[in-house]
Amino acid sequence: MWPTASPAWVQNFWGDEDLQVIQSPLFLVCIIAGATALAFLLDHRVRWLSKVGASLLALILGAILSNTGLVPAASPVYSVIEGPLTSLAIAWLLLAVNLSDLRVAGPRMVGAFLLAGLGTALGAMVGAVLFAGSFGENSWRLAGVFTGTYSGGSVNFVAVGRGVDLPDFLFSGAVAADALTTGIWLAACLMLPLWIGRFYKAAIPGQDEAGDTGAHPHPFFEKVPLSTLDLASLLAVGFILVLASEWIGGRTPGIPPVLWLTTFALAVGHLKHFREPRGALQLGNLALHFFFVVIGIHSRVSEILSVGMEIFYYTLVVVGVHGLVVFGIGRLARMDVGTLAVASQAAVGGPSSALAVAVSREWKGLVLPGIIVGLLGYALGNYLGFGVAYLVRGAGVGL
Question: Would 239 be classed as within a structural domain?
Protein backbone atom coordinates (compact mmCIF):
# COMPACT_ATOMS: atom_id res chain seq x y z
CA MET A 1 0.00 0.00 0.00
CA TRP A 2 2.76 2.44 0.95
CA PRO A 3 5.77 3.23 -1.29
CA THR A 4 9.07 2.39 0.37
CA ALA A 5 11.50 4.32 -1.83
CA SER A 6 12.97 7.56 -0.50
CA PRO A 7 12.83 10.74 -2.63
CA ALA A 8 15.66 11.31 -5.09
CA TRP A 9 17.13 14.21 -3.11
CA VAL A 10 17.43 11.99 -0.05
CA GLN A 11 19.14 9.25 -2.06
CA ASN A 12 21.59 11.75 -3.55
CA PHE A 13 22.37 13.26 -0.16
CA TRP A 14 22.88 10.06 1.81
CA GLY A 15 24.01 7.46 -0.69
CA ASP A 16 23.00 3.80 -0.91
CA GLU A 17 24.90 2.59 2.16
CA ASP A 18 23.51 5.33 4.39
CA LEU A 19 20.01 4.72 3.06
CA GLN A 20 20.20 1.15 4.36
CA VAL A 21 20.90 2.59 7.80
CA ILE A 22 18.03 5.09 7.52
CA GLN A 23 15.58 2.30 6.72
CA SER A 24 16.87 -0.11 9.36
CA PRO A 25 14.47 -0.96 12.20
CA LEU A 26 16.97 0.12 14.87
CA PHE A 27 17.45 3.52 13.25
CA LEU A 28 13.69 4.04 12.98
CA VAL A 29 13.15 3.17 16.64
CA CYS A 30 15.84 5.71 17.59
CA ILE A 31 14.22 8.40 15.44
CA ILE A 32 10.70 7.74 16.76
CA ALA A 33 11.94 7.66 20.37
CA GLY A 34 13.82 10.91 19.80
CA ALA A 35 10.77 12.60 18.27
CA THR A 36 8.65 11.44 21.20
CA ALA A 37 11.13 12.78 23.75
CA LEU A 38 11.41 16.08 21.85
CA ALA A 39 7.61 16.46 21.86
CA PHE A 40 7.51 16.07 25.64
CA LEU A 41 10.49 18.40 26.08
CA LEU A 42 8.94 21.16 23.97
CA ASP A 43 5.63 20.78 25.80
CA HIS A 44 7.42 21.09 29.14
CA ARG A 45 9.96 23.83 28.37
CA VAL A 46 8.32 26.12 25.77
CA ARG A 47 5.35 27.95 27.24
CA TRP A 48 3.41 28.65 24.03
CA LEU A 49 3.98 25.11 22.75
CA SER A 50 2.52 23.75 25.98
CA LYS A 51 -0.83 25.07 24.70
CA VAL A 52 -0.40 22.84 21.63
CA GLY A 53 0.43 19.77 23.69
CA ALA A 54 2.85 16.88 23.30
CA SER A 55 0.30 14.79 21.37
CA LEU A 56 0.05 17.23 18.48
CA LEU A 57 3.78 18.00 18.60
CA ALA A 58 4.54 14.28 18.24
CA LEU A 59 2.24 14.08 15.22
CA ILE A 60 3.80 17.18 13.62
CA LEU A 61 7.33 15.85 14.11
CA GLY A 62 6.32 12.54 12.52
CA ALA A 63 4.81 14.35 9.53
CA ILE A 64 8.00 16.39 9.07
CA LEU A 65 10.14 13.24 9.13
CA SER A 66 7.90 11.54 6.59
CA ASN A 67 7.30 14.38 4.14
CA THR A 68 10.99 15.29 3.99
CA GLY A 69 11.81 11.67 3.16
CA LEU A 70 13.99 11.15 6.22
CA VAL A 71 12.10 7.99 7.17
CA PRO A 72 10.51 5.36 4.90
CA ALA A 73 6.75 5.31 4.38
CA ALA A 74 6.44 1.64 5.37
CA SER A 75 8.26 -0.44 7.95
CA PRO A 76 7.55 -3.37 10.29
CA VAL A 77 8.44 -0.97 13.11
CA TYR A 78 5.29 1.04 12.42
CA SER A 79 3.15 -2.09 12.56
CA VAL A 80 4.58 -3.03 15.96
CA ILE A 81 3.91 0.44 17.35
CA GLU A 82 0.38 0.62 15.90
CA GLY A 83 -0.40 -2.88 17.14
CA PRO A 84 1.18 -4.38 20.29
CA LEU A 85 2.67 -1.17 21.68
CA THR A 86 -0.60 0.74 21.38
CA SER A 87 -2.39 -2.19 23.02
CA LEU A 88 0.07 -1.99 25.91
CA ALA A 89 -0.58 1.76 26.16
CA ILE A 90 -4.32 1.14 26.44
CA ALA A 91 -3.74 -1.56 29.08
CA TRP A 92 -1.46 0.59 31.23
CA LEU A 93 -3.67 3.65 31.02
CA LEU A 94 -6.80 1.68 31.86
CA LEU A 95 -5.08 0.23 34.91
CA ALA A 96 -4.88 3.80 36.23
CA VAL A 97 -8.52 4.85 35.75
CA ASN A 98 -11.49 4.77 38.09
CA LEU A 99 -14.85 3.37 37.02
CA SER A 100 -16.67 5.82 39.27
CA ASP A 101 -15.98 8.49 36.62
CA LEU A 102 -18.71 6.89 34.50
CA ARG A 103 -21.43 7.81 36.96
CA VAL A 104 -20.95 11.48 36.13
CA ALA A 105 -19.75 11.67 32.54
CA GLY A 106 -21.11 8.43 31.05
CA PRO A 107 -24.59 9.40 29.73
CA ARG A 108 -23.41 12.80 28.49
CA MET A 109 -20.41 11.30 26.75
CA VAL A 110 -22.50 8.67 24.98
CA GLY A 111 -24.95 11.34 23.86
CA ALA A 112 -22.12 13.54 22.58
CA PHE A 113 -20.58 10.59 20.75
CA LEU A 114 -23.85 9.71 19.01
CA LEU A 115 -24.08 13.36 17.99
CA ALA A 116 -20.55 13.06 16.58
CA GLY A 117 -21.55 10.02 14.53
CA LEU A 118 -24.54 11.91 13.12
CA GLY A 119 -22.32 14.84 12.15
CA THR A 120 -19.87 12.52 10.41
CA ALA A 121 -22.60 10.79 8.41
CA LEU A 122 -24.07 14.11 7.29
CA GLY A 123 -20.61 15.39 6.35
CA ALA A 124 -19.85 12.28 4.28
CA MET A 125 -23.11 12.62 2.37
CA VAL A 126 -22.54 16.33 1.73
CA GLY A 127 -19.02 15.57 0.51
CA ALA A 128 -20.25 12.80 -1.77
CA VAL A 129 -22.56 15.26 -3.52
CA LEU A 130 -19.93 18.01 -3.73
CA PHE A 131 -17.19 15.76 -5.14
CA ALA A 132 -19.30 13.40 -7.25
CA GLY A 133 -17.80 14.94 -10.37
CA SER A 134 -14.27 14.13 -9.19
CA PHE A 135 -14.74 10.56 -7.97
CA GLY A 136 -17.70 9.36 -10.03
CA GLU A 137 -18.69 5.79 -9.25
CA ASN A 138 -16.30 5.71 -6.30
CA SER A 139 -18.13 8.50 -4.49
CA TRP A 140 -20.31 6.10 -2.53
CA ARG A 141 -17.29 4.03 -1.54
CA LEU A 142 -15.43 7.06 -0.20
CA ALA A 143 -18.55 8.22 1.62
CA GLY A 144 -18.68 4.90 3.46
CA VAL A 145 -14.96 4.82 4.19
CA PHE A 146 -14.84 8.36 5.57
CA THR A 147 -17.99 7.78 7.61
CA GLY A 148 -16.39 4.70 9.14
CA THR A 149 -13.03 6.25 9.92
CA TYR A 150 -14.53 9.43 11.40
CA SER A 151 -16.98 7.46 13.54
CA GLY A 152 -14.43 5.25 15.26
CA GLY A 153 -10.93 5.60 13.85
CA SER A 154 -8.63 3.98 11.31
CA VAL A 155 -9.73 0.45 12.26
CA ASN A 156 -13.05 1.21 10.59
CA PHE A 157 -11.29 2.74 7.58
CA VAL A 158 -9.67 -0.57 6.71
CA ALA A 159 -12.79 -2.63 7.45
CA VAL A 160 -15.17 -0.50 5.38
CA GLY A 161 -12.60 0.11 2.64
CA ARG A 162 -12.16 -3.60 2.07
CA GLY A 163 -15.89 -4.22 2.36
CA VAL A 164 -16.80 -1.75 -0.40
CA ASP A 165 -13.80 -2.73 -2.58
CA LEU A 166 -12.20 0.71 -2.59
CA PRO A 167 -9.65 0.71 -5.48
CA ASP A 168 -5.99 0.57 -4.45
CA PHE A 169 -5.13 3.85 -6.19
CA LEU A 170 -7.68 5.63 -3.99
CA PHE A 171 -6.88 3.64 -0.86
CA SER A 172 -3.38 5.02 -0.29
CA GLY A 173 -4.40 8.60 -1.05
CA ALA A 174 -7.43 8.33 1.21
CA VAL A 175 -5.30 6.92 4.06
CA ALA A 176 -2.88 9.85 3.78
CA ALA A 177 -5.71 12.41 3.61
CA ASP A 178 -7.39 10.74 6.58
CA ALA A 179 -4.20 10.85 8.66
CA LEU A 180 -3.55 14.50 7.80
CA THR A 181 -7.11 15.60 8.57
CA THR A 182 -7.15 13.53 11.76
CA GLY A 183 -4.07 15.45 12.86
CA ILE A 184 -5.70 18.77 12.03
CA TRP A 185 -8.80 17.84 14.00
CA LEU A 186 -6.71 16.62 16.92
CA ALA A 187 -5.20 20.11 17.01
CA ALA A 188 -8.68 21.62 16.87
CA CYS A 189 -9.96 19.47 19.74
CA LEU A 190 -6.97 20.48 21.84
CA MET A 191 -7.26 24.21 21.10
CA LEU A 192 -11.00 24.86 20.68
CA PRO A 193 -11.80 24.42 24.40
CA LEU A 194 -9.36 27.24 25.16
CA TRP A 195 -10.92 29.54 22.56
CA ILE A 196 -14.65 28.84 22.84
CA GLY A 197 -14.98 27.29 26.29
CA ARG A 198 -16.51 30.44 27.78
CA PHE A 199 -19.55 30.06 25.51
CA TYR A 200 -20.38 26.61 26.87
CA LYS A 201 -21.73 25.17 30.07
CA ALA A 202 -19.21 24.96 32.91
CA ALA A 203 -17.25 21.74 33.31
CA ILE A 204 -19.10 18.90 35.01
CA PRO A 205 -18.04 17.80 38.51
CA GLY A 206 -15.00 15.51 38.42
CA GLN A 207 -13.69 17.11 35.23
CA ASP A 208 -10.73 19.41 35.73
CA GLU A 209 -10.75 22.77 34.00
CA ALA A 210 -8.35 23.04 31.07
CA GLY A 211 -5.15 24.74 32.05
CA ASP A 212 -5.66 24.41 35.81
CA THR A 213 -2.43 22.77 36.82
CA GLY A 214 -2.06 24.27 40.26
CA ALA A 215 -3.83 21.57 42.26
CA HIS A 216 -3.11 18.72 39.86
CA PRO A 217 0.40 18.27 38.41
CA HIS A 218 0.53 17.72 34.67
CA PRO A 219 0.29 13.93 34.09
CA PHE A 220 3.21 14.06 31.64
CA PHE A 221 5.61 15.71 34.08
CA GLU A 222 4.43 14.54 37.49
CA LYS A 223 7.22 12.74 39.33
CA VAL A 224 6.28 9.53 41.09
CA PRO A 225 8.44 7.17 43.17
CA LEU A 226 9.12 3.99 41.22
CA SER A 227 11.03 0.82 41.97
CA THR A 228 12.36 -1.82 39.61
CA LEU A 229 9.68 -4.12 40.98
CA ASP A 230 6.97 -1.60 40.03
CA LEU A 231 8.22 -1.41 36.44
CA ALA A 232 8.68 -5.16 36.13
CA SER A 233 5.16 -5.75 37.45
CA LEU A 234 3.66 -3.25 35.00
CA LEU A 235 5.48 -4.79 32.06
CA ALA A 236 4.44 -8.30 33.04
CA VAL A 237 0.81 -7.39 33.71
CA GLY A 238 0.62 -5.35 30.51
CA PHE A 239 1.93 -8.16 28.32
CA ILE A 240 -0.29 -10.73 30.04
CA LEU A 241 -3.37 -8.55 29.48
CA VAL A 242 -2.56 -8.03 25.79
CA LEU A 243 -1.79 -11.72 25.25
CA ALA A 244 -4.97 -12.85 27.02
CA SER A 245 -7.14 -10.42 25.06
CA GLU A 246 -5.64 -11.50 21.74
CA TRP A 247 -6.04 -15.20 22.59
CA ILE A 248 -9.66 -14.90 23.67
CA GLY A 249 -10.46 -12.41 20.90
CA GLY A 250 -9.31 -14.94 18.32
CA ARG A 251 -11.82 -17.44 19.69
CA THR A 252 -14.79 -15.08 19.98
CA PRO A 253 -15.67 -13.77 16.51
CA GLY A 254 -17.55 -10.50 16.59
CA ILE A 255 -15.89 -9.27 19.79
CA PRO A 256 -12.65 -7.38 19.02
CA PRO A 257 -9.60 -8.18 21.19
CA VAL A 258 -9.40 -4.55 22.33
CA LEU A 259 -12.79 -4.95 24.02
CA TRP A 260 -11.46 -7.92 25.98
CA LEU A 261 -8.32 -5.91 26.78
CA THR A 262 -10.43 -3.07 28.15
CA THR A 263 -12.49 -5.42 30.31
CA PHE A 264 -9.47 -7.26 31.71
CA ALA A 265 -7.45 -4.09 32.37
CA LEU A 266 -10.35 -2.43 34.18
CA ALA A 267 -10.96 -5.54 36.28
CA VAL A 268 -7.30 -5.93 37.24
CA GLY A 269 -6.98 -2.19 37.92
CA HIS A 270 -9.70 -2.44 40.55
CA LEU A 271 -8.09 -5.33 42.42
CA LYS A 272 -6.63 -4.39 45.78
CA HIS A 273 -2.99 -4.95 44.82
CA PHE A 274 -3.22 -3.16 41.44
CA ARG A 275 -5.41 -0.17 42.32
CA GLU A 276 -3.84 2.99 40.85
CA PRO A 277 -0.47 1.30 40.17
CA ARG A 278 2.53 3.60 40.24
CA GLY A 279 4.02 4.24 36.81
CA ALA A 280 1.06 2.94 34.79
CA LEU A 281 0.04 6.41 33.61
CA GLN A 282 3.63 7.31 32.74
CA LEU A 283 4.31 4.15 30.70
CA GLY A 284 0.93 4.41 28.98
CA ASN A 285 1.48 8.02 27.95
CA LEU A 286 4.95 7.24 26.62
CA ALA A 287 3.73 4.35 24.47
CA LEU A 288 0.75 6.40 23.27
CA HIS A 289 3.01 9.15 21.94
CA PHE A 290 5.10 6.67 19.98
CA PHE A 291 1.80 5.94 18.24
CA PHE A 292 1.22 9.61 17.47
CA VAL A 293 4.64 9.98 15.85
CA VAL A 294 3.78 7.06 13.55
CA ILE A 295 0.39 8.59 12.69
CA GLY A 296 2.30 11.71 11.67
CA ILE A 297 4.63 9.61 9.52
CA HIS A 298 1.61 8.31 7.63
CA SER A 299 0.53 11.89 6.81
CA ARG A 300 2.30 11.99 3.46
CA VAL A 301 1.36 14.87 1.16
CA SER A 302 2.74 12.99 -1.87
CA GLU A 303 0.12 10.28 -1.45
CA ILE A 304 -2.64 12.88 -1.50
CA LEU A 305 -1.23 14.66 -4.55
CA SER A 306 -1.02 11.38 -6.49
CA VAL A 307 -4.82 11.12 -6.57
CA GLY A 308 -5.63 14.84 -6.42
CA MET A 309 -6.24 17.32 -3.64
CA GLU A 310 -9.99 16.72 -3.92
CA ILE A 311 -9.67 13.68 -1.67
CA PHE A 312 -8.13 15.88 1.02
CA TYR A 313 -10.84 18.49 0.56
CA TYR A 314 -13.42 15.73 0.93
CA THR A 315 -12.06 14.79 4.35
CA LEU A 316 -12.09 18.44 5.39
CA VAL A 317 -15.78 18.71 4.43
CA VAL A 318 -16.65 15.58 6.43
CA VAL A 319 -14.84 16.73 9.56
CA GLY A 320 -15.99 20.33 9.10
CA VAL A 321 -19.67 19.34 9.06
CA HIS A 322 -18.98 16.94 11.93
CA GLY A 323 -17.52 19.78 13.99
CA LEU A 324 -20.41 22.13 13.27
CA VAL A 325 -22.93 19.50 14.36
CA VAL A 326 -21.02 18.48 17.50
CA PHE A 327 -20.16 21.94 18.81
CA GLY A 328 -23.28 23.62 17.40
CA ILE A 329 -25.97 21.23 18.59
CA GLY A 330 -23.90 20.46 21.68
CA ARG A 331 -24.00 24.15 22.57
CA LEU A 332 -27.79 24.21 22.17
CA ALA A 333 -28.04 21.06 24.30
CA ARG A 334 -25.99 22.79 27.03
CA MET A 335 -23.18 20.24 26.97
CA ASP A 336 -19.77 21.20 28.34
CA VAL A 337 -16.99 21.76 25.82
CA GLY A 338 -14.72 19.11 27.35
CA THR A 339 -17.23 16.32 26.80
CA LEU A 340 -17.85 17.51 23.24
CA ALA A 341 -14.13 17.71 22.40
CA VAL A 342 -13.31 14.27 23.78
CA ALA A 343 -16.38 12.66 22.17
CA SER A 344 -15.54 14.27 18.84
CA GLN A 345 -11.96 13.01 18.98
CA ALA A 346 -13.18 9.55 20.00
CA ALA A 347 -15.17 9.47 16.76
CA VAL A 348 -12.57 11.00 14.46
CA GLY A 349 -9.40 9.47 15.91
CA GLY A 350 -10.56 6.56 18.06
CA PRO A 351 -10.05 5.77 21.76
CA SER A 352 -6.32 6.57 21.77
CA SER A 353 -6.90 10.07 20.39
CA ALA A 354 -9.78 10.70 22.79
CA LEU A 355 -7.55 9.65 25.64
CA ALA A 356 -4.81 12.00 24.43
CA VAL A 357 -7.18 14.99 24.42
CA ALA A 358 -8.53 14.16 27.88
CA VAL A 359 -5.05 13.72 29.34
CA SER A 360 -3.52 16.75 27.58
CA ARG A 361 -6.27 19.05 28.86
CA GLU A 362 -6.25 17.33 32.29
CA TRP A 363 -9.89 16.24 32.14
CA LYS A 364 -9.26 13.19 34.29
CA GLY A 365 -12.96 12.45 34.66
CA LEU A 366 -13.29 12.09 30.88
CA VAL A 367 -10.45 9.62 30.31
CA LEU A 368 -12.41 6.40 30.75
CA PRO A 369 -15.67 7.68 29.17
CA GLY A 370 -13.65 8.81 26.15
CA ILE A 371 -12.02 5.41 25.78
CA ILE A 372 -15.35 3.61 26.16
CA VAL A 373 -17.15 5.60 23.46
CA GLY A 374 -14.07 5.24 21.27
CA LEU A 375 -14.41 1.48 21.60
CA LEU A 376 -18.11 1.81 20.84
CA GLY A 377 -17.02 3.49 17.63
CA TYR A 378 -15.29 0.31 16.46
CA ALA A 379 -18.73 -1.28 16.09
CA LEU A 380 -20.81 1.81 15.30
CA GLY A 381 -18.33 3.04 12.69
CA ASN A 382 -18.58 -0.12 10.63
CA TYR A 383 -22.37 -0.22 10.63
CA LEU A 384 -22.64 3.51 9.97
CA GLY A 385 -19.98 3.37 7.25
CA PHE A 386 -21.69 0.63 5.27
CA GLY A 387 -25.09 2.24 5.84
CA VAL A 388 -24.02 5.61 4.44
CA ALA A 389 -22.18 3.96 1.54
CA TYR A 390 -25.26 2.05 0.41
CA LEU A 391 -27.50 5.06 1.02
CA VAL A 392 -25.33 7.25 -1.23
CA ARG A 393 -25.17 4.53 -3.88
CA GLY A 394 -28.93 4.05 -3.70
CA ALA A 395 -29.38 7.78 -4.26
CA GLY A 396 -27.33 7.47 -7.45
CA VAL A 397 -24.67 10.00 -6.40
CA GLY A 398 -21.77 9.89 -8.86
CA LEU A 399 -23.28 7.05 -10.90
Answer: yes
